[in-house]
Amino acid sequence: MSPTRTSDVLVVGGGIIGLVTAWRAAQRGFATAVLDPAPGGGAAQVAAGMLAAVTELHFGEQTLLGLNLASARRWPDFAAELTDFTGHDLGYRRCGTLAVALDADDRAELRELHVFQRQSGLESEWLSGRECRRLEPMLAPGVRGGLRVDGDHQVDPRRVAAALVTACERSGVVFHREWAERLEVARERAAGIVTREGTALAAGQVVLAAGSLSGRLAGLPPEVRPPVRPVKGQVLRLTVPPRYAPFLSRTVRAVVRGGHVYLVPRENGELVVGATSEELGWDTTVTAGGVYELLRDAHELVPGLTELPLTETLAGLRPASPDNAPLLGPTGLDGLLLATGHHRNGVLLTPVTGDVLAHALATGSLPDEARPFTPRRFAAAALTEQPV
Ligand code: GLY
């Protein structure tokens, strides 16, 4: 083994969740390191960046809603702080979202969602099809109605990732550009990581923030292995030429034949169309079928979209947990913390995750708002399962 390098906090994974954790830890005075072959990569390179606590509300996810809303409230200050500190523009747009229905079944589903949103105390206004098209004239004439949610915004996750790399560098975070191979445990405590290249990285505390790969690290005792799995999302990027602008003025989303499609227009002319949801392991192939389905559904929603140049196709992996909520904070192994399992909400949950993990690293406990997301809620089940 090569000579040991030591930090107070070693974050495994340099996606936006790992980076925000490292940045906040460094701000608290911890000597912090990030282990990732390509910091700033991962799911943020694919994600559309919707901050959609209200329009992505799902039945049975009320507890998660509380954390999503807490993070949505933090986004304005978080974006301002990160931009002030790094000089990076994050593409944060307070543009709102319109969720529309294309047929009678979609309309009924959206009506139910509206009732649920109102019961949950959320701001959401029902609009007729004509009112939807008045807001967004490119919408298909057949749109039957929709929900106007002025509080669901967007940010550009690629810019957030780049800004967080800069923020970490400026805060003295050390980057080890290698793959994590194995967790080292000594005297019943997480003691560090050995990399694939054989480098030993010792640490006072280890934060596992490796997205859908988090459960694959060797050396994890079974009772603390996070039950995360990859859920593939294929995403397209189109470009709106200046002569077509403004093509859409806000995020537009819909359920089309049971599948979710969303269109996220950026100020720089990029139009992100997402996303498939596929359980295929760690496969990130972009398929003809995936691209076809996205274009078919998006075209039904906004017919003029097929005139636009298609500039990029990509697939990423959402780190999903059994209850769709993240695993945050201390585990049953001293010195090992988790920040993973963010599934559909990684970008939205970035600010609150950074704050929660910094608190946990400093105090050994979770703040009240994050208690339901303790990794310990899965510990008993983990003992009876096979490692992934
Ligand atoms: N939050 C968008 C997605 O997971 O596709």
From TrEMBL:
The keyword Oxidoreductase applies. It holds the Pfam family DAO. Residues 8-359 form the FAD dependent oxidoreductase domain. It is an enzyme of class 1 (oxidoreductase). One of its GO terms (cellular component) is cytoplasm. InterPro entries: FAD-dep_OxRdtase (IPR006076), FAD/NAD-bd_sf (IPR036188), Gly_oxidase_ThiO (IPR012727). Keywords: Oxidoreductase, Thiamine biosynthesis. Its EC number is 1.4.3.19. Pathway: Cofactor biosynthesis; thiamine diphosphate biosynthesis. GO terms for molecular function: flavin adenine dinucleotide binding; glycine oxidase activity. Coiled coil: none annotated. This is glycine oxidase. It comes from Streptomyces adustus. The lineage of its organism: Bacteria, Bacillati, Actinomycetota, Actinomycetes, Kitasatosporales. The gene is thiO.
